[in-house]
Amino acid sequence: MSGFDFLQLSATIALGLLTLAFALTIIRIIRGPSLPDRVLALEMLVSTGIAYTAVLAIKTSFFLYLDVAISLGLVGFLATVAFARYVLQRGLQRKERESAIQAASSGKLKQ
Amino acid sequence: MSRVALAIVLAIIWAAITGNFSAPNLLLGGSVAILALLLIRKEFAPPVYLQKIKRSISLAGLFLYELALSAYRVSVLILSPNMKSKLKPGIIAFPLSVTSDVEITLLANLITLTPGTLSVDVSEDRKFLYVHALSVPNKKALIKEIADGFETKIIEVFK
Amino acid sequence: MIVEIAYYIGAILLLIGALFSVVAAIGILRLPDLYTRMHAASKTGTMGAGLTFVAIAVVAFDGPVILRALVGFIFLILTAPVGAHLLARAACLAGYKPSELTEINEYEESMK
Hints:
The complex is a heterotrimer of chains A (111), B (159) and C (112). Chain A is mainly α. Chain A has helices at 3-31, 35-60, 65-90, 94-110. In chain A, helix 1 packs antiparallel against helix 2 and helix 2 (35-60) runs antiparallel to helix 3 (65-90). Chain B has 2 domains: 2-39, no CATH class; 50-158, no CATH class. Chain B has a 3-stranded antiparallel sheet, covered by helices on one side. In chain B, helix 1 crosses helix 2 (23-39), helix 3 (50-79) packs antiparallel against helix 6 and helix 5 packs across helix 6. The mean pLDDT of chain B is 76. Chain C is elongated and about 60 Å long. In chain C, 61% of the residues are buried. Chain C is built from 4 helices and no strands. The model of chain C has no long low-confidence stretch (mean pLDDT 81). Chains in contact: A-B, A-C, B-C.
């Protein structure tokens, strides 16, 4: 197998793995339980998206995708900063306080 | 003087990102850099010496190495079947001996990238850095590890 | 010859990066609370995306593209800890408690 074929094959495998990572992260976004958990999962989703775009750049040899990946990183970082401020300003909601206590105690039970 | 150097560096970064090193593009990058520097309130770039550059590069090398190591250690922890018993998370106060903004920022960033630690906040009086760690079997050993590793390196670069 | 070697190195970097991304996603699912999950996202996740940038720099053979890939990589590893730190600080100050596995919490003690 030539180097180029191997590169193409591993790019395809990497795309598959990244799709799996997307799916797992989305489960965390759905489950929550709190807002910062979801923000964190969103950040993870962005970095998986960056990796996805970069792999596409290699697979298609169309390196303009690199610019897309870099700007996605910029937007993701700004989104995280903005969300962090929002989490700080909003504080804790009553429902979340209850579910946080529940989650913490269930974690202990499993252990 | 340092502003001029910074503007030149920013112009080169501009050219690198746009992927075009032609004269008009460098000029455009330079003008954007000057505009950005005018918007910043105070002088922050320290004078650059060769010795410092050398140490900064070694610091950058350490940064990359620690990032790779910490990513590997965290992955091993995540994939181990009895993860919960290995976890002993805790937030500890790390007494700071570096004082300036740049040094604290750098240390906080480096700590976030070391195996198993994540900086959370700096206390109001700048004496403590609060660090979240994945496993704290021994608080004093962890503090000593950070103080001997990164903090000494950072002090070397900036003093 | 050198091109072939570069392709193989790039391919391996891609696979390692993708594996790191998957591990980070598993970590986000498995770890018990927000602060421990942040470790997975900020280190392993960044490493996953960063390695794909390095892979581009290795296989591109084109000056501007290599430079852009490296700038992107540096940008990524500089912003990730800042983002994680901001989110951790905001969550701590807003009052989200770490899980009960947590043994010491000197931050909370300091705020009382």
